[in-house]
Amino acid sequence: MTNIMLEVKNLKKIYDELGPSPKIALDDLSFEIKNNEFVCIMGPSGSGKTTLVNILSTIDKATSGIVNISGASIVGMSGAAKAKFRKKKLGFIFQNYNLLYSLTIRENILFPLIINSIGEKEWQENLEQVTQILGIKDILDKHVYECSGGQQQRAAIARALISKPEIIIADEPTGNLDSNNSRELMELFSKINHDSQTTIIMVTHDAFVASYSTKMLYMKDGKIDKILNRHDLTRDEYFNEIVKVNAILSNN
Predict the structure, then answer these.
(1) Shortest CA distance to 126 belongs to which of 109, 142, 150, 107?
(2) Strands of 64-69's sheet, edge to edge?
(3) What's the mean per-residue pLDDT of the chain?
(4) What pLDDT, in 10s, does the model give residues 165-222?
(5) Segment 58-113, tens digit of pLDDT
(6) pLDDT in the model for residue 208
(7) How far is CA 64 from CA 28, 73, 96, 137, in A?
């Protein structure tokens, strides 16, 4: 059995391809992510990070190329097939949480299971597991507006985990958090990555946040400009390497 969770080959995305001013957002991208890797994607504004994540999330289409997730090709999938694949394989964490304020924390977390008609016994077991990991059992019956930003972010993570996805895609998850909550969140991500054997793909501009990953992809002009692996580096050493790479590549 292959240990490759994500395979991207010769991926291109061109907006307004037939128009007078086509824009190349992704330019012949190729890379792999293994099972249980924690990968961060960095790069300047306009480098293609959001476009790449949108394609991996199956909410945007590639112009050409290959994208295989967990052995399944998502390029050319029908809309219905993509929706089913997204629900089964992927979990999402957003900068703005995207929680429903009219629901309790419990109802927000369980929402993906309810719309997928998962049986009560299974969702009760899943709820017990994720709330134990995230330490939010005591806020399950509170409404969103009664919870702090850190608690809301943990609820958003629980919602992403509740379906036991193979990949979590996080877009600037610490963007609205202070430094203490950002550190706590990244420690949780590391724990989830280690304990749940879940592959994580995270977009961030923050070198400190990126230092919790096991691999960093630096994007520029729609291409992967640098791949940095943590290997046996301490987190502080890895952080320093990320800062150096960002400084060098952003000035080139």
Answers:
(1) 109
(2) 23-34, 4-15, 64-69, 72-73
(3) 89
(4) 899 999 888 877 788 888 888 998 898 888 888 999 999 999 999 999 999 999 999 9
(5) 989 999 999 999 999 999 889 899 988 988 899 888 777 789 999 999 999 988 77
(6) 94
(7) 9, 12, 31, 45
| Residue 119: per-residue pLDDT | 61
Q: Which two tokens stand for residue 3?
A: 């240990």
What token pair was written down for 198?
Answer: 């879940």
Residue at 96: amino acid letter: N
44: CATH: 3.40.50.300
Tokens of 144: 């969103």
Residue 234's identity, in one-letter code, is: T
The answer for residues whose C-beta is within 8 angstroms of residue 251's C-beta and 6 or more apart is none
The answer to whether residues 181 and 150 touch, using CB atoms and an 8 Å cutoff, is yes
Q: What does DSSP assign to residue 166?
A: S
What residue numbers bound the domain in which 93 lies? 4-251
| Token pair of 54 as six digits | 């949108």
CB-count exposure of residue 129 (10 Å: 0-12, 13-18, 19+): middle
* DSSP secondary structure string for all residues of 179-221: HHHHHHHHHHHHHHHHHS--EEEEE-S-HHHHTTSSEEEEEET
The number of domains in the chain is 1
Residue with tokens 């990968």: 39
